[in-house]
Amino acid sequence: MKFRMKWIKKLLVWMVCFCFSMMSLLPILWSVLTSFKKYIETQIFPPKILPDQFSLHNYAELFKGSSSIVKPLLSSLEVAVITTVIVLLIAIPAAYSMSRFRTKRTHDIQMWVIGMRMAPAVAVLVPYYIIYSRIGLVNNKGGLIVLYVLSNVTFAVWLLSVFFDGVSKEIEEAAMVDGLGHWGTLLRIVIPLAMNSILIIAAFVFIFSWNELIYAMNLCGQQTQTLPVILSTYASDVSVQYQMMTATQVIQIIPVALITLLIQKNILTGLSFGAVKG
Amino acid sequence: MKQKQKTLAERNAVTAKIMLAPLLTVLLVLGIFPGIYLVWTSLTDLQMNNASSGNFIWLSNYLALVTDSSIFGSALLKTLLFCLAALPIQFVLGYVIAKFFMAAVDMKGTGFLRTVYMFPLMITPLSVGLFWNYLLNPRVGAVNFLLQSANLPLQEWLSDSSTAFPCIIGIYLWQWTPYVAMLIQAGLLSIPGELYESARADGAGLLHITKSIDLPMLKKVLGISAILSLVQIVQTFELVLATTNGGPGTSTLVSAYAIYRDAFKYFQNGRACAEAVVLMVITTAISQVLAKYVLKEED
Q1: Number of domains present in the structure of chain A
Q2: Given CB atoms, is B35 within the 8 Å cutoff of chain A?
């Protein structure tokens, strides 16, 4: 009897958790369903929950004609991938250095690093926009990547040094006795051992760049628009084509969703600067 | 021997510097220089569409922020109001939800539910704003449909100046309560189970457990979550862009959006720089507290 009561209680608790996750999921699901609807179906009240038929028409439309999203999609991908690579190239040695050669100055640099990360994007954008307009870097993917590197490298260094602190130093010392220098140890011992963490950080940097709007919106021209910039045009539209908007959103979210599922155990670690282990 | 050790230490120091060099170069060139430029511009009357502007005007921009019935001043207050209204709800709700997920932690599928529950965190606030804008559409939105089904009066939501700001806060809470909830749950996981058992054996109620075990044990996690959430709120921009553009009137004009509007709609670049400096100072202060919290753990 007591056992059964306990079981029912557990089930009820599970149901409540289920409701919480539905609260997160349903609004997103509504968007996904809308992306299959026809324009007319988005304009009726009361709205229908399911589309009359699940047609991929809106998605096909997105890839057609002069306003096709292929180019922004590729721009987004290009910018995000290049940013991720550059960030890792700068951050891995820096984080290793901070983690292994701890001095008083390291502490100052860490403080500085986290302060930079927290700077409001708008406040960074205002001077950058003026500088870029003067030196002709507006409408240039390179200019955008520079800003993405700046805003992500701090995050990556911070988190990587937390991860590197966790890599056993004994193996490294053994390697150094065997004549491997610091660079050799970093390349052959530390990086392979910390590969998982490095991939998680790469995933985060990719998503941050993939999602970024404020810089892209103000520093991109027609030729270099990224996907969020295309999405933002739906914000000021008075007669929004909700079915097209949601289809674009779904495409924008797909890579994010896939990566989220891959790194689900580490999301918290990333989002809390390693202060909390997921 | 001693001689050799010293040279090794020296060599280490050189390697350490070389490894740090690219990062420091990036931060210096891309961070400090534009920072100085920002401060300099904040002391001028620069307007990007006006060639005769850019004159040095001392602290006039800053004085304008405090003295005149400045819009940025009220936008800062709006951000403060945002924090005061959102944070308590976010934390109480987050704690309750974390407790539920803890209670179900050993059941099948809870891990998956957790990932689903956290999913809003990974979506760009722009997208979140856009689909909530649709859900809250007074004419064809799903939320009004729910109200109608429950025979409640329909609302104008984001287009009514009395409900727009609460809606923004609501959308923020939808996206970021999972953040706090999951951080708290991670904290709860590290509390040894015996503490709860002995408390229960003493006949302690839920409230007592919260007060005597959870709150003291979660101090650090709560501190970090509060600071990260604060920074998140101060940065709120895309959500406003996707929903209200600061309106109706100035009812949802938060500080980050006000800076953007001054710089890119009104071309008051000098003034926008002054506002950016103010916001930078505020967030830097907050983030230094965070850095202290995080670094403490390692010592």
Answers
A1: 1
A2: yes
Residue B278 lies in a domain: yes
* B50–chain A Cβ distance below 8 A for any pair: no
Q: How many helices (H) and strands (E) does chain A have?
A: 15, 0
Residue A129 sits in a domain whose CATH number is 1.10.3720.10
Tell whether A233 is covered by a domain. yes
The pTM score is 0.91
Residue with tokens 């500088």: A131
Instruction: Tell me the residue range of the domain where A247 lies.
Output: 70-271
Residues 164-193 of chain B whose Cβ lies under 8 A from any Cβ of chain A: 174, 178-179, 182-183, 186-187
Domain that holds residue B179: 67-298
Mean pLDDT, chain A, rounded, equals 88
CATH of the domain at B139: 1.10.3720.10
Q: Is residue B222 part of a domain?
A: yes
Query: Do A145 and A86 form a contact (C-beta atoms < 8 A)?
Result: yes
Q: Within the 102-141 window of chain A, which residues sit less than 8 Å (CB to CB) from chain B?
A: 103, 107, 109-131, 133
Q: How far apart are CA A127 and CA A122, in angstroms?
A: 9
CB < 8 Å to B263, chain A: 122, 125-126, 129
Q: What pLDDT does residue B299 have?
A: 42
Is B235 in Cβ contact with A127 (below 8 Å)? no
Cβ neighbors of A187 (< 8 A, separation 6 or more) are none
Length of chain B: 299
Q: Is residue B24 part of a domain?
A: no
A25 is a domain residue: no
Nearest to A139 by CA among A77, A74, A75, A232: A75
Q: Three-state SS for A97?
A: helix
8 Å CB contact of A90 and B37: no
Q: What is the pLDDT along chain A (278 residues), one digit of tens a residue?
A: 677 888 898 999 999 999 999 999 999 999 999 999 999 888 888 888 899 888 899 999 999 988 899 999 999 999 999 999 999 999 999 999 888 887 777 777 777 777 777 788 898 998 999 999 999 888 889 999 999 999 899 889 888 888 888 777 788 888 878 878 888 888 888 888 888 889 989 999 999 999 999 999 999 888 889 999 999 999 877 778 999 999 999 999 999 999 988 887 777 777 777 777 65
pLDDT over 60 (residue B84):
yes
B243 in reach of chain A (CB within 8 A): yes
Q: Return the residue of B nearest to A32 by Cα.
A: B131
Using the predicted structure, report yes or no on whether residue B146 has a pLDDT greater than 60.
yes
Q: Is residue A162 part of a domain?
A: yes
Please tell me the total count of domains within chain B. Answer: 1
Q: Is residue A55 part of a domain?
A: no
Q: Does B12 touch chain A (CB under 8 A)?
A: yes
Can you give the length of chain A in residues? 278
Arithmetic mean of pLDDT, B206-219: 88
Q: How far apart are CA B4 and CA A31, in angstroms?
A: 67
Q: Which of A122, A274, A276 sits opposite B237 (nearest CB)?
A: A122
A251 close to B (CB below 8 A):
no
